[in-house]
Design a protein that fits this description.
By secondary structure, the chain is α/β, with parallel strands linked by helices. It has a single domain, classed as Alpha/Beta hydrolase fold, catalytic domain (Rossmann fold). It has 12 helices and 8 strands. The chain has an 8-stranded mixed β-sheet with strand order 1-2-4-3-5-6-7-8, sandwiched between helices. Strand 1 and strand 2 form a beta hairpin. The longest helix has 17 residues. The two termini are about 15 Å apart.
C-alpha cells in the first residue's frame, strides 16, 4: 500500500488571534495549504469524518508522525496541531499567563470552523486528553468520537498543582528540554532505549519556555471531567500503555467504565507515550476502532 500525502501548514484563526501550525495527512495535506494561502477554508465534499490528534505535554503535534503516516496510507484525513504555546503556533503566551485546556479546546473548534467541519474524532493523549475533555464539556456537538489515551479525568490534587508551578518555573529558567528531562522516567516505560528518549527530548526542545510554562499552569486549573464523560453519547475508546506509571491502567479502566460507549485497549510494551513507544500496537487499536465506528 502506498503512503498517502503528508504535510505541514499554518492557518490564521482571527477569532482566536492565533496562527495555528498543523501537521496534516490525507486530503488535508493536498488541499489545506492552498486553502490557507487563499485565506479560505478547504472544502470538505464527501471526505470522511476527520481525525484531530491532540498532543501531550511538553511535546507538540510532531509526536503524532507515526499515526499521520499510518492514517494517510489508509485514506483518513487527519490534523495534528501544535496547541497554543507549543511548536510553531504563534503568538506565544505572555509572561505569567496560564493557557488552560479550555482555551486550547476553543482553538480546536476554530480549526473545525476554518475547514467547515461540523464534527471530528478527537484523539487526545495526556494533556491532549484534557483538551478533548474540555471540548466535551463546552462543545459536545462537535465531537463525532472520542479517544482518550494515557490521561485522567480527575482534577489535580493540591500537591500536583504545586508541582505544575514548579514545572513552569523550571521551563522559564532552564528551558523546555530541561522539563522533559525531569519527566522522562514517567513519560517512557522502564527500560526504554536512548533512541526513544532522544525523540522525546527533541520534540520538547522545539517548544519555547513561555508556552510550556503557561500550559503547565493551565493544566492545574482544569476541573474534574468525570460527569461530562458520563453524559457523552458517542463512540469512545480509551488507550493506555501497559507500563504507564503516570496514568496507570487502573485510571484508564475507570475512565472507560464511565463512558456510555467506552472501550478499553491496553497497549503492550508502552508507557505514558504509548503512540511513540509502540506505534504499531497503538495504530492497530485506533484504526480498528475508527473503521468499525465510522464510514470512510
Amino acid at each position: 500500500m502506498s503512503v498517502g500525502r503528508l504535510g505541514t501548514l499554518t492557518i490564521a484563526l482571527p477569532s482566536r488571534q492565533l496562527n495555528l501550525h498543523l501537521y496534516v495527512a490525507g486530503a488535508a495535506a493536498g488541499t489545506g495549504a492552498a486553502a490557507a494561502a487563499a485565506g479560505a477554508p478547504a472544502a470538505t465534499g464527501s471526505q470522511p469524518v476527520p481525525v484531530i490528534f491532540l498532543h501531550a505535554f511538553p511535546l507538540n503535534g510532531g509526536m503524532w508522525q507515526p499515526q499521520l503516516e499510518a492514517f494517510s496510507a489508509r485514506g483518513w484525513t487527519a490534523y495534528a496541531p501544535d496547541l497554543r504555546g507549543f511548536g510553531r503556533t504563534r503568538p506565544l503566551p505572555a509572561a505569567g499567563e496560564a493557557v488552560t485546556p479550555e482555551m486550547m479546546a476553543q482553538d480546536v473548534v476554530a480549526l473545525l470552523d476554518h475547514y467547515r467541519l461540523p464534527r471530528a474524532v478527537l484523539v487526545g493523549l495526556s494533556m491532549g486528553g484534557y483538551v478533548a475533555m474540555a471540548m466535551a464539556r463546552a462543545f459536545p456537538e462537535r465531537i463525532a468520537g472520542l479517544v482518550l489515551a494515557d490521561t485522567r479525568a480527575s482534577a489535580d490534587a493540591p500537591e500536583t498543582r504545586a508541582n505544575r508551578e514548579r514545572t513552569a518555573t523550571l521551563a522559564l529558567e532552564k528551558g523546555a528540554r530541561a522539563v522533559a528531562e525531569t519527566m522522562l522516567g514517567g513519560l517512557l516505560r522502564p527500560g526504554a532505549g536512548q533512541d526513544e528518549a532522544e525523540v522525546v527530548l527533541s520534540l520538547a526542545s522545539q517548544n519555547e519556555p513561555a508556552g510550556v510554562a503557561a500550559a503547565s499552569r493551565g493544566m492545574a486549573l482544569r476541573p474534574d471531567s468525570t460527569d461530562i464523560l458520563a453524559r457523552l453519547d458517542c463512540p469512545a475508546l480509551v488507550l493506555v500503555g501497559a507500563e504507564d506509571v503516570i496514568t496507570p491502567v487502573a485510571v484508564a479502566e475507570s475512565i472507560a467504565s464511565v463512558l456510555p460507549r467506552g472501550q478499553l485497549v491496553v497497549i503492550p510494551q508502552a508507557g505514558h507515550l504509548a503512540n511513540l513507544e509502540n506505534p504499531a500496537g497503538f495504530n492497530a487499536a485506533l484504526l480498528s476502532f475508527l473503521e468499525e465506528s465510522f464510514a470512510r
